[in-house]
Amino acid sequence: MIFTPLSILLVLLAGALAVPAPGRGALAGYCNMSEDCKANECCVSFNRYSVVDLSPDLKRFVAGKCEPLGGPGAACYVSFAPQILITRYSFACPCLKGAFCSKSGRLPPRVDGPGVCKAVG
Ligand SMILES: *[C@@H]1O[C@H](CO)[C@@H](O)[C@H](O)[C@H]1NC(C)=O
Q: What does UniProt give as the signal peptide span (predicted)?
């Protein structure tokens, strides 16, 4: 095969197309951001709690795993950062609608910390 600039370009394009999309195909259930996940899920960055069922060559294409939004009793994280800026969560998903994240322990007010989802009211 002669490596003309065109054939090199085609090989590069094929390589770019081969990058699997987060949330689909071999990467279903994995994500870079919450939009890659199903409606009642969010994207949580790989961390020491993640059970990752991906080969290392696929794992480099994603940064996190889709996890369900938290029902009552689920672990969550109270964060005072504007939620709209968060594309991927570092500890756990926010709580489902109708639940809120109640901070565990005796952390002072306005300090981020782990919590548990509790039903509203
Ligand atoms: C997802 O993130 C990985 C690195 O973490 C990156 O290589 C890949 O291109 C990203 N995919 C998309 C579709 O943005």
A: 1-18
